[in-house]
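From the pipeline queue, job 12 of 40. The input is one protein chain; the requested action is below.

Action: predict structure.
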Amino acid sequence: MESQLQQGIKGYNNYGAWLREKYKGQRVFKVIVDGGFTCPNRDGSKGYGGCTYCNVDSFTPSVSRNNPSVREQVMQGVARARKGNKADRFIIYFQPNTNTYAPAHYLKMLYDEALSYHTEDIVGLSVGTRPDCIDAEKIALLESYTDRFDVDLEMGMESIYNDTLGQINRGCTHDDLIKALGLLQNSKLDVCVHTIFGFPWETKEMMLRYAGEINRFPQIKFVKFHHLHIVEGSVMGVKYKREPFKLFSLPEYTDFLCELLPLVRPDVVIQRLFGLSDMELLIAPNWGLKKSEIQYYIDKAIADREIIQGSSFI
């Protein structure tokens, strides 16, 4: 007899199951588009060098980096997803850098272009950004697509602590996120926040408090949980090579997630439990497993321990 995990039933509200239910069993895949943006803490507006953990290439597929036009990225991304992932429908995902860091009229031109190909198979638009690059005009622009597409706005929370945000050269504060969430309180957009666990100066107790901060904003529909990984081309990578510091092992991170998930509001959809960079850029931690193997390791531990998302949510 198959276990619940073998049947695809997990102890947390996972994005894959959510997509299958929403799109009636169709396979939906995100197509990453690089819009050529920068960030305000890279171009001098708020600072230089970007976040200390970041090398933008580490989370951008090489095929996106090498394609000069939005059209080519969409066309080739759709073709790859059809062939390699047997995808039926697609979400256009503006991921690298800050994808609302431009005037609204320019953003509209770019989003319109990306959504003008394979229109019968595109079901969504996902836009990754920073909370300090969101305003009412840009929210209204994104909302204008909701009559045709499911639209989600992904913002980097990273940490709930301003001291951490300062140390990583984030260039914005947690108050900026709270302000942006206020603007999105009654929005038609699906809001996603992204967090990073494992900054060496944050204790486990500090990191577990992220759950309460997520829970208090009902407009947060999705979350992405990442462990801190150190990549080539980042400021933190240089520091780590000079003086290595403690990072999560896979068993330690799994233990942490098993403590975190019961605290998270049960309706929050978890898009990711961890993140990986390209192996040629990864410095540490190298868990020695493929992405699918890491996912299975974590999911099996959650199932074996009978962890249920929201079971300790009050």
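Job complete. The beta strands are 28-33, 89-94, 122-129, 150-158, 190-197, 220-227, 230-231, 269-272, 282-284.
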